Fold each of these.
Amino acid sequence: MTAVAGVIAEYNPFHLGHAYQLSAIRRVLGADCRIVAVMSGNFVQRGECAILRKHARAEAAVRAGADLVLELPAPYAMAAAETFARGGTAVLAAAGVVTHLCFGSECGDIAPLRQAADCMDSEAYHAGLRRFLEEGMTFAAARQAAARELIGGAAECLSYPNNNLGVEYLRALRATDGGMEPMTVLRQGAGHDSRETGEYPSASLIRQRMLAGEPWREMVPPETAAVAEREIAAGSAPASLEMGERAILAVLRTMGEAEFLPYDGGGEGLYRRFYRAVQTGTTLEEVLFLAKTKRYPLARLRRMAIAAYLHLAPPPERLPYLRLLAANERGCALLREMKEKAAVPIVTKPADVKKAGQEAEKLLAAEARCTALYTLCCPAEGPAAADSEYTTDPIILRKE
C-alpha cells in the first residue's frame, strides 16, 4: 500500500527547510509516497498576516513537492499550539486516506515527545501546572516545570517550538480515530526567529528580507521564488500588519471592553487590560507593549488583537468541510479517493459549500471576512481582491 503522509504547516513562505522535510519523508516512506499538506490560510498562528495569499503559498508548496494542500480553517490557524494541532490533525483524519502524520522536531526522536504527551494528559500534570501558574509563572515556564516534576530530563524537549507542536500532535492523535502513525523528521537549519543565514534560513528572516526589499530569492526553492515574484508584480505581496495597521486599529478602537472578552482565552481579565491599551496606543506594537506583562507573551497578545480585528469565532466543534487549495495530478487522484472515504464534504469550489450545510456556509463566510480584511494588508488589491474568497478556484497543476 502506498503511504500517504500528512503535514501540518504554514508555508509562510515555503522555503528550503520545508523542501528538505518533504524529501526526508519520501526517503523514509518511499519515493511514491503522496503528501497532503494542511496549511494555514491568510492569517497565521503568531497573529500575523501571511506574506503571500493562501492560494499562492499552496501553489508554491505543490510546485516544490507536496501533492495536495487543504486549508486549515482560520479559527484553528489563529489559535495556540494545542488548538492549532487539534485542527490540523482533524483535517488529516477527516480526509480518510492519510496513513502517517509527519512533523519536524528539534530532537528528531519520537520517544521523548511521547513521554511528554503522556505526561500532559495526566491529572498530576494538570495539578502541577495550576500550582506553578498560581506562583506567577508564564504558561510556557509552568508547563515545563510541571512536566519536569513527572518525567525529569525528557521535559527539556518542551523548550523548543517544533518539539512543542509535535507533543500537541501526539496528544491530538490520541483523541482522533484516524489511524495515522506519527513520524518525526529532524529539523534542519536556523530556529524560528533566527536571523542567521545558512543552508536553511528561517521563514522569519525570509519575510524580513522580502518586506525590506533585500535579497531573499536564494533562500527559497525556485518554485517559491517564481510564485512570489508574480505576486509582488501583481501588487498582492508582500503583505504585512504594518501596511494594514490603521485599519486594524480602527476596528479595535470601535470595540467596547466586553467585546474583547471572547478573545481573552484565559479568563484572567486580560481583556480589560487590552481594552485600555487599545484606547491609548497609537500603533499596534504600542498597544501590545502596553498590554504586555510577564504573564502574557507577545504572540498571545498579537493573536488576540488580530482575532478581534477579524471578529473570529471559536473553532467549530466538528469540521464542516475540507477545503482544497491546490493539487497536482497525483493530488487529484488522491482527491478522487478522498471523495469516497472522507468523513466530511470536500469543497473544491466555493459554490460547493452550499451543499455542505449551514455550519459550512458559516465557516466559509468567516474565511471570506478574513480574506477581505487581509487585502488591507497588501500593497495593492491585485489577485487578493476583497471578494476573492468566493471567486478563486483551487490551483490545479497538470503535466504539460
Note: The longest helix spans residues 358-374.
Amino acid sequence: MKNIILIGAPVDSGKRRAGCLMGPDAYRTAGLGRALANLGYKVRDWGNLTPAEHTPDDPDAHIYAHHETIGWTNRLLRAGQDAMAKGLPIFLGGDHALSLGSVAGVAAHAAAHDRPQFVLWLDAHTDYHTPETTESGHLHGTPIGYVTGRTGFGGFPKLAKPVPQENVCILGLRSVDQAEREAMQETSIRAYDMRMIDETGIAGPLAEFLAMVKKANGALHVSLDVDFLDPSFAPAVGTTVPGGATMREAHLVMEMISDSGLMTSLDLVELNPFLDERGRTAQVMVDLAASALGRRVFDRPTRAFT
C-alpha cells in the first residue's frame, strides 16, 4: 500500500489578489483524503504549514511579499524532501509560488538518490519569470525560472541541482507575455500551447514526455494549476484565461499519468475558494487528482451542482 502525504500550503504571497490561502481546506472539504483512501492508499495529512522565519516585507516594494515567499520556499523545500522519503506528497495550494519550494524539495530528494527530476507543468502560463524580469511583481509567475536555475533569485535557497530545461514539459499555454516568450525561445523546455493541442491533440506530446521520464528512470513532479482548465467549469482562479483544457482532455492527461505509474509528487495550485461556485472547482481538482492516482472512467461519481 502506497502512502499519500497531504501537505497544506496556504501560500497567498505570490500575487496581490487574496484567497488562495483557503485552498487546502477546500480540498479537504471536497473529500480529497477520502477519495484517495477509497483507491486503496494510506493517506496521512500533515496539516497546514507556515512559512519559515523571514524578514518583514515592504508593502510598497515592486516585488510583492518577496521575503514571505522566500520563507515559504524554505519551509516547503524541507517539507518536500522529508515527505518524499515517506510516500507521495500532494501539496495543497495555495498559489503557484508554492512550487518554488515543492519542486526544489522533491528535486533535492531526487538528486540525493541519483535520479533525474522531471516536471510536468499543467498551466496557462510558463511561469518562467524571475524577480528581476516580472513586470507585475508577482512571484507565482517565477517557479519554472527558479527551479531550472535562472539567475535573479537572490535570497532564495540555493538549489542542490537545478531541473534541466529539457526535463520540463508545459501543457496548456495560452497567456505568455513578450519577455517570457523571448526567454523561452532560448530554452529547451518542451512547451505546448492550446493551438498545438487543438491541432494535434494532447495525448501525443504527453506520451512522448512520459516515455522520456520512464527511459531515464526519472522522478516525475506534476503541477496542476486551476487555470490549465477552461474557466467554464473551473472558475475559482484569479488568472482565468478562456480556451483552456476541456474536462475530457484534463482527465485524459491524468489517466495517462496514472497508467504510466511515474508520478512521484503532485501540486494542486491556484484554487481560490472565494471565487468558486458551490465548491465546483475544488471538486473538479479532487476528481482530477483521483484520476492521476488510479480512478478509472467507470468509477467516477456523478456530481450535482444544482
Note: The beta strands are 3-9, 42-48, 88-93, 117-122, 168-173, 190-193, 219-225, 263-269.
Amino acid sequence: MTDAEIAAAQRARDKKRRMRKRRRQISLIASVLFMLLIIGTALFLISFFGKERRGGADLKEAQAAKIAEEEAEIEDKRKAIEEAEKIALTYDYDGAIALLMQQKDYDTDNELVNAIASMTAQKSTLEAKDVLTVPHIFYHSLIVDPDRTFDTSKWSEDTIAGNNAWMTFVDEFDKITQQMYDNGWVLIRMRDLVTETKDDDGTVHFKKNKNLLLPPDKKPFVLSIDDWSYYHTYAGKGYGDKAVVDENGDVKVQYTAADGTVSVGDYDVVPRLNTFIKEHPDAAYKGARGLIAMTGYNGVFGYRTDVAYKTHEKLDADQQQWLDEHPDFNWDEDVAEAKKVAEAVKASGWEFACHTWGHLSVTDKSVETLSVDQEKWQNTVANITGPTDTIIFAHGADIGTWRNYDAATNPVYAWMKSIGYNFYANVDASSEYWIQIQDDYVRQGRIDCDGLQMWRAISGKAKKNVFEQLFDVNSVFDSRRPTPVSATGKA
C-alpha cells in the first residue's frame, strides 16, 4: 500500500472517530435535554397540582368561614327572638320589637318579619288601664313557722296578738300570690301610675299615665313591704334571720329552724315573689317589683347597721343583749354585707322607700322632730339602699287628710317635698283603691294583707271586703291563727 493510500485510510478512520464522538455528544445533549424536560415537566406538574390543592383548601376554608358566619347569624337571630318573646311576656311589646329591629335583615328575613308582625298584632289588643282604680297591697315579713310565733309558753298574750294581727304566713302569701295571678292581676310599679316630666331647674310634674297598656283581662296592682329589717323582737318567733345574696347573685333569706338548723331559701316576700315572677314572667309589667319601706333603728335586712351598734351609745335593752350575745360582731362587715344585699335587691327590680328611721307616726309631728329622724335615716339607711323619692308612712299615718296636700298650708309636706319626696303612701283598707295624682306629688292608700284585715273580712267586721276583687280570703286565711284576731299587741 502506497503512502497515499495509507494516508487516505488514516483520514477515513479519523473521520469515523469524529462522527462517532459527535453522535455521542449529540446523544448526551439529547439525554440531558430530555432529563431537563422531564424534570421541568415534573416541577410544573407539582407546582400546578400544589396550587390546585392550596386553592381547594383556601376555598374550603372560605366556605367553612361563611357557613360559620351564617350559623352565628342564625343563632343570634334565634336568641334575639327568644329574648324578644320573653320581653313580650311582660307586655313590653315596644321593647321586644325594638330588639328584633336591631337584627340584620329584620325587614326581609321571614322569621324576623313574622315575629315582629305577631308582636305588633298582640300589642294592638292591649288597652289602657285607668290608673285611678289601681289597688296597692302590702305585707310585713312573713311568718315561716306559726307554731313558734304563737307559742304561748314563750310569748306573752300581747306579743302573740301583735304578730297575729300584723303578719302574714308564708302559706297565706303563696295562696294570695297564686290567686291574684289566676285572677288576672299584674304587678306594676307605683311610678307606672304616672308620667313624669322635669323642668330645667329640676322641678318635677306628674300626670296620669294614659298609656299603661295591658290585655283586656289583666288588671294592674302595686305591692309594698314594710320593715324588712328583722327586728330583735322577731328573734325566735319563726321569722327569717337576715337577707343574703347566694352564689347566683340572687337575694335569699337565711332561716334558723326550731332545732337550730340553718338554711337559705325563699323565706320572705322578696325572694318568694322573685321566684314566682321568674316562673310566671307575665305576672309583672315590664319586670316590675314592689317597694320596700325601710326603717333603720335596728339596722336593715337583719344586719345591725345602725351607728349605735358601732358606738355602743344610747342602746336599748334588745340592742345591748344582742351585742352581748355576739362579741365578735363587726359593724363595718355588716354594713358591707347589707350594701351587697341592697344592690342585688335593686338589680332584681325592687325599689326602696323611706319608712322613717324610728318607725315614727308622722301625724302631728313637727318638721324639727321629723328632720332629726330623717337625718338618721339618710346616714344609716340611705347610705346602704341609695336615695329614694318615696316615703311610706309607718303606723298607717299620714301628714294630711284625704284632701290634697298643699305646701302653702302644710309645712310638713312642704318640707318633705323640699328634700325630694314625690311619692307618698299611707294605709287605707276602707276601699279597694285610693289614689291622688297631683302636679307635684302622687299619693296612694294601701291595703294590709295581714291577719287582722283578713279576719275582719271573713268575720263580717269590715265595712267592705276589699279582698273580694283580689282573692278569696276564706280560702287564704290560715286555720292555725288564733281567733278572734284583734288590733291589740305589738309584733
Note: The chain has 14 helices and 18 strands.
Amino acid sequence: MPYLNDSETSRKIRQGDLSPTYLFYGTERYLLERTLVLLSNKASQEPKSFNHIILDGEKSTAEQIETAAETLPVMATQKYVCVQNFNPEKFSSADMERLKILVENPPDTCILVFCAPDATDDFKKSAKWKQFANAVASTGIVTEFSVKDKGDLARLLIERAEKLGCKLERPAALYLIEIVGHSLHALLGELTKLTDYAANRCITKQDIDLLVPRTVESSSFDLAKAILRGDYDTALHILDDLFDQRQEPLMILGALSASFLDLYRAKCAQNAGKSSGDIAAIYPYKGKEFRIKNALRDAPRFSSRQIAFCLHALLKADGQLKSSRGDNKIMLEQSILSMMLFAAKEAHI
C-alpha cells in the first residue's frame, strides 16, 4: 500500500476500500479528525462497546496495543482500534519492533489506526518514525494532513459555499483566507456565518468585512507594513481594532514580532540572492509557506535598517511588557510610534 494524500485516502474510505492499517499525522487537525470519523463509521461494527476501541498512545504500552488489535471482535467480523497521540519516540526500540511486526502482519479481524496530530515530517528525521511509517505503508496507508495552500483552500470554500446555497467567487474566497488565516476549521466556521447572512446570494467582500474579524496574525502583517511606511492612520486603526477585539498586548506584540521576523528573513534572503525554498529549508514554515511569499513580496519596499530597528524595538518592548507594572497598551503604542518615527526619518534620508 502507498503513501496517499488526504483526498485519496478519504475517497478510498468512502468507497469502502479499507486497509488493515493506517498512520494519520499532520497539522491540519480538521481534515485529520474528519477522515478519522469517516473511517470509524465505515470500520466499526456492533456492538461498538466491544468493537470500537480508542487507546491513548501516550499511556498505552506496545503490549496493550497488540492485545487490543489481536483480540477477536465480539459478535462481529471486524473491530476498530485507534491509537491516538501516537509518538514512536516514546516507545523503546524493543516495543517499536513489536509494533512494526504487528502492522506488518495485521490481524484479519481488525482495522488498526495510529494518529499523530500536529506531527509534521518527523519520521523523515527520526529512524523510529521512518521505520514505523514504512512498516505501516507495507500493508496499509500513511497519510499526512498538512495545511492547505491558498488555492486548495479557496477551492474547498467555493465548493462548500455552493453546498450551503450561496456563491463564493475566487477573489472573495482568497480575501477570506487573508483575513482568517489557513485554519480550515476556522474558515469553515466563518463561511457558515457568511452563508447564513448572505441567504442564497453571492458572498461579497463587504459581507466579509462586516462579519469576519481579522486574526491577530493577519492583522499583524498589515500593521508591520503600515509601521514601515510610517502610515500612522492605518497602523493606529489596526491597533485599535485589535484592542476592540480584546486581544492582549503581549499577543499582539508576539504576532507583530513574527511578521517582522518574516520580513527580515525575506530581506536577508533577497540580499543574498536566495529563494523562498532556501528560507523554507532553514526555518519552520511547513504549512505556512504563504508567510514567506507575503514577506518576499513586501520586503523590497523597505530597507534592512528599518526592519532591523523595528526588531530591536520589539525586543525592548517585550522586556518592558513582561517586567513592568505599567499600562501594557500604552507601552505597546509607544513602541509602535517610535518605529514609525524611525521609518519617517529613513524616508527623508
Note: The chain has a mean pLDDT of 89.
